[in-house]
Every structure is written in structure tokens, then in C-alpha cells.
Amino acid sequence: MRRLPGVLIVEDEPAIAELISVNLKHSGFRPIWAIDSATAQAELDAVLPDVILLDWMLPGESGLTLAKRWRAHPRSKDVPIIMLTARTDEVDRVAGLDAGADDYIAKPFSTKELLARIRAVLRRRAPEQDAGVVTVGALSLDAATYRVVYRDQPLKLGPTEFKLLHYLMTYPERVHSRSQLLDKVWGDHVFIEERTVDVHVKRLREALGLDAGLMVETVRGAGYRVTSV
Ligand code: CA
Fold first, then answer.
1. What is the pTM assigned to this prediction?
2. Which of 101, 123, 181, 200 is at a distance of 20 to 30 A from 117, taking alpha carbons?
3. What spacing in Å lies between the alpha carbon of 85 and ligand 1's midpoint?
4. What are 87-126's pLDDT values in tens digits?
5. How far, in Å, from the CA of 169 to the mean position of ligand 1?
């Protein structure tokens, strides 16, 4: 089983912490609640979380002080911090970001927005971690172990086909033009013809086999997409 990303919630209001925790659990995160700065520091010393949600106004040390300290410390400097606060002034927001926060969300916030922000900082901070396993319908791809599985059957793909599928599966249902794919999958497409994409899509479909191959769709006049149907 994959490890659930841990989110340290530093918040002195139990009702807010509880609301956030419940929503995080439902969305596949592992919330850890710290009611004050001392508890937060102890949690951080014990296990490094994947993200920190940090309230600005805390009894004792403020969220701003904590953010500055954690950013300065080698062990915690790369952990994304999202500041939670009722302060909405531009000056305060700048102060939060200056202290090393990755993002800032004003109370009251929607939990949906908070979750979106958490996912965004995780993507920005650790793209390789985030890119672990992608699943579309019965097809799943694990970038870490380099495996592609369809209906529990492992499939063999060449390196370019693997990269191409990985990219398409990361954005399911979205149509990508040939030039976009060259740019994202091949990197530098100056000397590569767009027809190259067609060749690799054909190979990809063959490698995926009859059923899974259908998931790589041609969208006439636009490009290609991966779809779950
Ligand atoms: Ca507070």
C-alpha cells in the first residue's frame, strides 16, 4: 500500500482543526493535529510531514515565527507550508510569503479550495513523488517502478512509449496536439517531425494490446488523448 501523505495541522481552534482533519482523511491524507507551537515542533521533530498547514495566530509563538524557523532549519526547509489566517491584508500576505510560506489561504476558506492548494504545493515541491502511480480506468502506470498494468496484466513498453503514456495519463481526457507532445515528451522538438508522434502512438497502442490500446484516442484535427472508456 502507498504511504498516505501526512499533513501537520497547526491550529489552536479545535473546531477548525477537526473540520480540516475530517476532510483530509476523506481525501487520502493523514492529518496530524498540533494545538500550539510546542506540540507542532515536537511532531515535526518526530516525523517530517509532507505539508504543513500553519495558523498565523497561535498562543505563544506565532505561525510567522514558526514558518521562519522551519524554513531556516535544514531538516524542515523543504516541507511546503500553507499559512491559514484571518488576516487578509496585502502586507500580511507578503509577510507570510517572506517568512517562507509556499501559499496563503484566508479564513474562512472552502475545504475544496484548501485541498486544491495542498495538492498544488505537493506537485510543485515533489513532482517525482506526485507522479508515483497514475490510474485511468483499468490502466495504471507506476513511474517509480516503471510498470504498466492493464486489468492486472503487466504490459511491456519501450522507453518513449512509456514516457508518452505517462504524460497522457497524467492529464486524462485532455487533448494534446502533436507539437505539445513533442515539447513535453521529447523535450526539444526542433529536429523531430510531428509524424514521429504518430509512429510512437501506433507503437504504444500495439504494446497496450487490443482493449487498452483503444484508450489512446485520436482526436481528428487536434491530437491525442487518453480516456477511460
Ligand atoms: Ca488561531
1. 0.56
2. 181
3. 7
4. 666 777 777 777 888 888 888 888 888 998 898 888 776 5
5. 40
Q: Which residues surround ligand 1, an ion (CB under 5 A)?
A: 12, 55, 57
Question: What is the residue type of 177?
Answer: S
Inter-residue contact 198 to 223 (CB < 8 Å): no
Distance CA 133, CA 198 (A): 25
* 3-class SS letters over 52-64: EEEECCCCCCCHH
> 55 alpha carbon to ligand 1 midpoint, in Å?
6
What digits encode the pLDDT tens for the residues 152-174?
Answer: 899 999 888 999 999 999 888 89
| CA gyration radius, the chain | 22
Grid coordinates belonging to 22: 475530517
Task: Look at strands 51-55 and 81-85 and give their pairing.
Answer: parallel
Hey, what domains does the chain have and what are their CATH numbers? 6-125 (3.40.50.2300), 133-226 (1.10.10.10)
